[in-house]
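Researcher: Good morning. I'm working through a list of sequences from a screen, and I'd like to move beyond sequence-only analysis. For each chain I'm collecting a predicted structure so we can compare shapes side by side. This is the next one on the list. No need for commentary yet; just the structure.
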Amino acid sequence: MAAIERCSNFISKLSRKKTLEKDLLETPLKRCLTTFDLTLIGIGQMVGAGIYVLTGTIVSKMAGPGAILSYLFAGIAAFLSSLCYAEFGARIPKAGSAYTYTYVSLGEFWGFLVGWNVVLEGVVAAASIGKAFSGSVDALCNGAIRNGTITALGAINVPGLSPYADFVAFGAVCAVTAYVAIGAKASANLNSVFSVLNIAVIVLIVVMGFIHADVGNWSKEGFLPFGIQGVFGGAAASFVAYIGFDAIAMAGEEAATPSKSIPRAVGICMALVTTLYLAATAALTLLVPYADVSTSAPFPDAFSQRGITWAKYVVAIGSLIGMASGLVTNLFVVPRSIYAMSADGLLFRSLANVNEKTQTPLLAIAIFGLLSALLTLLFEIDILVEFLSIGTLVAYTVVAAGVIVLRYQPVSKSQFQFKPEESQAGESADESGEKRPLHSSRSHDDFGKLRGVFKSLPLLHHCDPGTAASSATILMAVFMGALCGLGLYAYPAIVGGEWWAILFLTILILAVIASFLVIIAHIQNTGSLSFQVPWVPLFPAVSMFLNIALMLKLSYLTWLRLAVWVAVGLIIYFGYGMRHSVENRPLSAYRQIVSYNTNDGGSELQSMTSDPVEVQPENPPKHAE
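Model: Good morning. Structure tokens for this chain:
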């Protein structure tokens, strides 16, 4: 019995959820970022090395002019993920983004794993951009930096390491780290300047591309020279260019009016970036035939081929600005994730210390900025970029699942303020025959329960509210993974009509559909006062499927490196985080009640800790810029 009790206690610690603060707007950080600032933070992290470098490979090697469709499909997948981030960001305006959202909806263990992967993504992304920035500067100098360093210090002949010590990349990352430490507003202002210049350069590319367009480039060898498979392969590769909208949610704790500005900034950012990518790719493929597109510097080389020399140098400088913008936003975002995890006790608490003058977590900025700088100094860019996608896709998948779980939670497990209870008006006749309005309402207490017509279903009617929907979401993710794996690695057998492949394909498709139907058989919690993703659970489910499919297309070495990183994280969690978590208190502290505000008809959940949880104010207090 003692062993069973210890096991139960261990599982309860893994699944305990983060208790939100009394006032979600209260923070030691400075709330000074506007919708404009948040939008440019997202653009700054998204529009960088991806569009300037990656487009060449996708066009020339994978999709041809069909790369336009590749960016469109990748944009749709990213848009679905961004909606999930927007809902969580509006509900929980705290640093940590995917980590915090997962901690609140799925529990501490999953929250830590997602947060640890987000840290990996941010550190490696900053290092990769620093390396790309250095390579572009060296290219403008005709290789003088690389050759001079090797001549002075000698070459490094170790597989996987950079052939020379890249001091330009190291210095760039250190300089930006020092600037980011000054404060959120200073970082946002610098990023705004870089982002506006970056957008101007892309607009120049589009205008000049269409002015000098040759429509024959789309007809000589066809718009889809690599077929539809090439388009989808290009979509998987181009998804990296959309990584960055989560930076908007990460900065939520420093947003002045997060419930409004985060959804708006995410929507504007995604629409603008997708339009820029589609237009720039169209301009590139109209400038030169896809087979002549350079894989290293596609836009400058295309203008050079057409004899527009001045545009070549303008675009080259614009690419440096774009990378500098991405470097600023990555080094701005990573310490916020570290700060959130450390403040919760899952990482060392000293990393959550906020400097009174700058109102930034200086130690976290310094340590992880230096780590990114060391990576740029020692490693080659191809080793660094292998990590970029997988950590992000894991986070996107879990956040999408978290939205579904959150929407089917009963009131007793929720920590958010609700709208007034739904009321549907009808008419009835009294004894005199006069018609009077009749109101029927759906109580908030119905959230998470089975719909009336499904209450007799076996197994499901015995489950507590929200439990079946949560379990079905997890099972749906597992079945989606198996289905994507079968489709990717048994495709010839499926096309060939082999019985075993068709059988497994049918079973997995039915399993995914059955899990989805279990979810929609329950009453959805639509009572949130903030932004909500439309068409739940369909949109999050599609997002999960697309992200899982993209993850399974990554190499096994990427998965192996991820496993090593996760193993290090688990050592930290079980050795330190589990014991020092702020949620590591008796289970009696988690009792909850729901109170209904009779003044405005809303309702809120109060956690029975030392004090009741207060309602988030509708009009947040204004903070000095």
